[in-house]
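Teaching assistant here, posting this on the class forum so everyone can see the example we discussed in section. The complex has four components, and the goal was to see what a joint structure prediction looks like when all of them are supplied at once.
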Amino acid sequence: MTASRKCEYTRGKLAKESGVNLETIRFYEKIGLMPDPPRSAAGYRCYSIDHLKRLTFIRRSRELGFTNNEVGGLLEMVDGSYACDEIKQIALENVKLIIKKVLDLKKMQQALESMAAECSGGVTPDCAIIDRLLET
Amino acid sequence: MTASRKCEYTRGKLAKESGVNLETIRFYEKIGLMPDPPRSAAGYRCYSIDHLKRLTFIRRSRELGFTNNEVGGLLEMVDGSYACDEIKQIALENVKLIIKKVLDLKKMQQALESMAAECSGGVTPDCAIIDRLLET
DNA sequence: GCTACACTCTGTATTAATTACAGGGTAAAG
DNA sequence: CTTTACCCTGTAATTAATACAGAGTGTAGC
């Protein structure tokens, strides 16, 4: 289903498009997060748009604080190695995790916004406001 | 301002309370994310409630995908080494970053929720739904 | 005071995730 | 046909976190 059709990207281009470091792509292939891509006659890696999507998903997931193992778990849903009710369970567990992350981020956002607001008058924000960042 | 008053936690207790691994605390002290705590006569580390708050903040920030360096930047606001307009700037930059993270998380949440919903009927979610996870 | 147990200390080693480098091959523009 | 810009592999170094080894401390019960 997510099979690659065409050979559209070389490794360097894929790195640029996805925002993932060139060497990191090779590392992801080594640990199995990314599949081993087909090769050209000379041995050059040959990526498709599907590789780009998958890699971008990995990057964003990592930036959101998921470990490589957790990203692997999410990708197993895509790879189709699970039955339907297992997919549902994994999906809902991750939704819970995401809701918690969003709440924490919003708390931090509010603390930062009140710090910025206090600073608008040109006055250093007082201890109470600064400490709120740590109280979340 | 965030000076420690009392000696309330030993390193083990702080680890348990904060959810940060015992050894990781020592590591954070080494790289300067946490201050070197005062010591007892025998050389035991002696932590206060302020250390606990700071450490908990670090843990949560890490879980939200901030690097140690980024967490350090946030903590410099707390440590008071910046002028007011600099604090404001750092705060607002981080708010932007947070808004982006929240948006990404919500997209992922929606994709996961539609996968779970499709699975409710006992049917394997179709390719379109699964691929949506990678399309975000 | 002793003995045992759970904790602490330090320094070093390992793991995970990533990035950098060295030494060489390939494609293709001029 | 040479120069430039890629690509390949294997290995080394970085960053973030943990694990381990060998020794000291504190205290509860004898």
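For the discussion questions: The radius of gyration of chain A is 21 Å. Residues 1-5 of chain A have pLDDT under 50 and may be disordered. Think about how each of these relates to the inputs above.
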